[in-house]
Amino acid sequence: MFNRKKYQSCFKGFLILTICFVSSFSPLYAKKQEILFSPVFFNEGIRYYKAGDLQNSILSLNKSLALSSSDISSLLVLGQAYLKDGKPSLAVKTFLTATKLYPADPLVHFLLGTAYEQNKQLKESLGEYKIALNSEPENTLIKFALGKACFLSEDYKCAVDNLEKVILAYPLHLKSGLVLASSYHNLKQYALAKEQYKNVLDYLPNNAVLWYNLAKAEIALGEYEDAKQGINQAVLLDNSVVEFYLDRAGLYYKLNNLADADNDYLIALKLELNNPVIPVEYANFLWKTGAYLKAADQYKKAIELQPDDLELLVNRAYLLQLAKQDSEATSIWDEVLKKDNENQYALFNLAKLYQDKQDYENAIGFYKKLISINDTSRETVLDAKQGLAYCLKKNLNFSEAKIIYGDLLKEKPANPDALFEYGSILAEEKNYKESIDYFKQAVGNNYEPLKTAYKALTNAYENLNDSTNLKVAYKEWLSIDKDNVDARIAYAKFLAKNAATQEAIEQYRVAAALDNTNASRLKLAQFLIEQNDFYGAIGQLQEYLKSAPDDLNTLILTANAFKELGINEQAINTYKKIISIQPDNYLTYFNLGLLYQHEKKTEEAQNYLLKAIELNENYAPAYYALGLSYMSLGDLKNNKAKELFEKYLQLEPSGEYKDKVEAFLKEILSKQIPSQAKV
Fold this sequence. Notes:
Blueprint: H1 5-22, H2 39-51, H3 54-67, H4 72-84, H5 88-101, H6 106-118, H7 122-135, H8 140-152, H9 156-169, H10 174-186, H11 190-201, H12 208-220, H13 224-237, H14 242-254, H15 258-271, H16 277-288, H17 292-305, H18 310-322, H19 326-339, H20 344-356, H21 360-372, H22 378-394, H23 398-411, H24 416-428, H25 432-444, H26 450-463, H27 467-480, H28 485-497, H29 501-514, H30 519-530, H31 534-547, H32 552-565, H33 568-581, H34 586-598, H35 602-615, H36 620-631, H37 638-651, H38 658-678
Helix pairs in contact: 1-10, 2-3, 2-4, 3-4, 4-5, 4-6, 5-6, 6-7, 7-8, 8-9, 8-10, 9-10, 10-11, 11-12, 12-13, 13-14, 14-15, 14-16, 15-16, 16-17, 17-18, 18-19, 18-20, 19-20, 20-21, 21-22, 22-23, 23-24, 24-25, 25-26, 26-27, 27-28, 28-29, 29-30, 30-31, 31-32, 32-33, 33-34, 34-35, 34-36, ...
């Protein structure tokens, strides 16, 4: 995959150019014995060299050597002319000739080392510099050359050993300070690197690369604010370098300044439109901030620039998957498989996508293919088997699922997921007794979520009617998971079922205290109503209504509780509030009618009962209640009452009030017959 090493090597080259810029090239002249032959050509070569006419200088010096091939002065100046003319290979040959004439001369070996260095033969260059230094161990110029060659060879310790001595002798030798700083940096001695960078910057304050390298050292030291100043200075001096923006964006991310980081990535993208590394780095930033879809778009740009890079395609597919763009992710994973039909990332993630969609058949196919690949790692195979077994279980293929879970447990006997799922299959097969052991082992091996394992365990005990162990399981669950509201409510229901009413109420109360949503308070109120503790229920319901004053279910429970207690005024007010929220609630009108009837307010009672019938003409109890109301008014309304009672029997011929209604009808009829006879 494309990476930033290319850029880093560019900056290394930039550093070397900076070193060369610090001081101009100075040819070394060997002070040798005056050799009187060929002085004309030698002196002519020197003149041309000083004048910068390298071609004529080389011609004259070669003429001198043609007359006297062992003229060391001509050899040394000619070698330097070749170096200055950009012909290091010819310089190497020339200085090698000189070493044969003067094998112990440190100057000759120094110049040969310089020629090797320029010819990119660093190993040979180091050898020559070391020979020269052995002859003149205090020569700082040779130490600098050796230190620089070590740096170029990436032997940073060797570079530091030599350059520290140069700086000790010449603290203001900027070239040495620059190479020493970079060597410290590469050795991760960031504090020393920072010190050297600052020393050099005192004399080269307009060098953008130095400011950038200083910032990098400070980032490594965790000095982010100082690093920001350094990298800002680098950008100020040269706003065309992509690397500056990329690293400053990374620094802004560390400082949690996401907007400025994003802006720097966008600038970098504009600076080098065809550089695939930039959208990749921007995508990684977006990935870390959770902007998965935007990150996937940046990978798309990188893919357009490098269409053959499979890793870019893999990362894009995964990001789309994280962004819940399952359809598009599936399509990209399919593309990956077209390029590499055994790509393990694609096979595994396609299996997961189909598993999440409950398309277990396709998921099973991809899991099986992944497992069949020879070079699949053991851990990947185990993960794939886990997924495969789960899908087989969901597909009701219990026998095959059990075999795979069994294999997983042979590999890892303490695998909590495999233990739980194996237990779940046994429970599905109604083998509750055996399932319990697996559920207990899953709990013991920290299965997550813990409540799911305990719920399965308690269900198994419940199906076995094992109340003793069921109670133990609930207590154990709550001792580990004290704040689990659902567990306490389940335990409360168990206690209530087993006639431990007071203990059940206590568990409901604890659940209500733990539950921020107040849902448990409502369940406690319902339980108290079941126990006919209407006062206790009203207290819980009123607390619940403080956070949800218009909750219809709670208002209805409250009104009914007031009604049961005979607190009619409060019941009436609550029922009226219910009507204001839900005007078509016929039961509320019915209850209001009953309350007003109890209060001997016949007209109001009849109005509400008539409204209940209007809203639900098939609600028989309303006809019965309204019939009673009309009967209470005396003989004049008996015909109306008779119609209502007959309607009740028509709707509910075997209803709760059947006997009473028939008795009332007989009473009405008996009053009507004498009247008719009298006429």
